[in-house]
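Per reviewer request, we include the raw input and output of the structure prediction for the construct analysed in the revised manuscript.
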Amino acid sequence: MNIQSLAAMTTGPDGVVKMVVDNEDDARMVLNHAGLEFTEHRVVRASLDDQPGALADLADALAGTGVNIEAVYLIPSDDDRLHFALAVDDPDTAERHMG
């Protein structure tokens, strides 16, 4: 299993780790084995041109369909495209409108 994106933060004595992995089954097994509590969220993936405003345009397009973005993760990208994983409140609608 590879972690493609990771964010960690604390709020008082509690910590939160958010990650995007390439194998959900393996991640689930590791977290369960470690006895850690976790929640899962389906993400949708987007590949955008590496240019100013590309992410804003995607956000505007999703907002126009009533989809709310809850988290955005930058995942491994190449030279001319940026790849994102987005946690949204309606993945099915988001996927239909992102092509």
